[in-house]
Amino acid sequence: MFVNVPSISKLQWHPFTVSSNSNMEPDKLSVIIKSEGSWSTKLHQMLSSPIERLDVSIEGPYGPQSNHFLRHDTIVMVSGGSGITPFISIIRELIFRSKISQCKIPDMILIAVFKSSLDLTMLDLLLPMTGSPSDLSNLKLHIEAYVTKEKEPTTDNSKRVRSILFKPLPTDKPMAPILGPNSWFWLAAIISSSFIMFLILIGIITRFYIYPRDHNKYESSASTKAVLNVLAICVSIAATAGAAVFWNKKQYSREATHVQNIEGQTPLGSLNLRAYNGDRELESLPHQSLAQATKVHYGGRPDLKRMLFERKGESLGVLVCGPKKLRHDVAAICSSGLADNLHFESISFSW
């Protein structure tokens, strides 16, 4: 999914992986943005300052939905840094499916490698904020987290994950598909209308401009006819698309007083920025069950070969997302031929 923040740059669109799950959170779309470059640093600074609202434009998401990992007995997810993002969505999908009695859920092992212990807060995002400890009761989830740059836990709590809510406005519009609420029917109507208008314009031009000049003697130049045809096409598209835009704006203005942010449907929606959970750490939310499934290692890297080869006699789906070297190392292990139950899949952020 591409994200644009006009207050930072109206031209920059940055791709991010969707971390939310449409089954658990049908009204929300989430991405995780790590503060590294100039654009993300500015975004972090804006969110850290007392602002009332933040306008964001998105395009996407792109890519097909896939649940092929359900065919395996065990899923091993290997991530490096922000590569944990796609696995958050997968885990949330399995949490949803675990509540369906007839659905078989594979065992899950998450091997997450981080440089700093501050990055461990990303594990708190495995569950949505509305999650509860019972969400993990039906899952066999084991998390092995590795902090490579530190020998012991840090005591710095100044950069804990916080929840910041913005006050919605009555004029805020819900996110809608690029084709609008009428989807493909709307697109077909626009195309059909523009084609019909093009035929009408060509008929009018032929009857009242070309015919009086040559009287069917075909003496008009081909270049003139070509220019008129192109002009008719442009006018047809512009008129039809413009009418659709104005019609949509009229509909939105009609419904503006009824449009509310999902958070605004609760008492929290009447609160100002930071009035709710301004400094509330996600660890205080019902995520303590994650701590029971998590084991943190400091000052070393995971022995991936041992961890993959020790599971015998079952179908093992190995998903990896992270730096190029990490993906190549896991691919080499799975293709070594020393185990025939490993099924490798790489998730790359490259475009």
From TrEMBL:
An example Gene Ontology biological process: monoatomic ion transport
Known catalytic reactions: 2 a Fe(II)-siderophore + NAD(+) + H(+) = 2 a Fe(III)-siderophore + NADH
One Pfam family this sequence matches: NAD_binding_6
Source organism superkingdom: Eukaryota
EC assignment: 1.16.1.7
Presence of keyword Transferase: no
EC class: oxidoreductase
Keywords: Electron transport, FAD, Flavoprotein, Ion transport, Iron, Membrane, Metal-binding, Oxidoreductase, Transmembrane, Transmembrane helix, Transport
PROSITE patterns named among the record's database cross-references: FAD_FR (PS51384)
Domain FAD-binding FR-type: 1-68
Family classification: Belongs to the ferric reductase (FRE) family.
Protein known as: ferric-chelate reductase (NADH)
Species of the source: Gossypium aridum (American cotton)
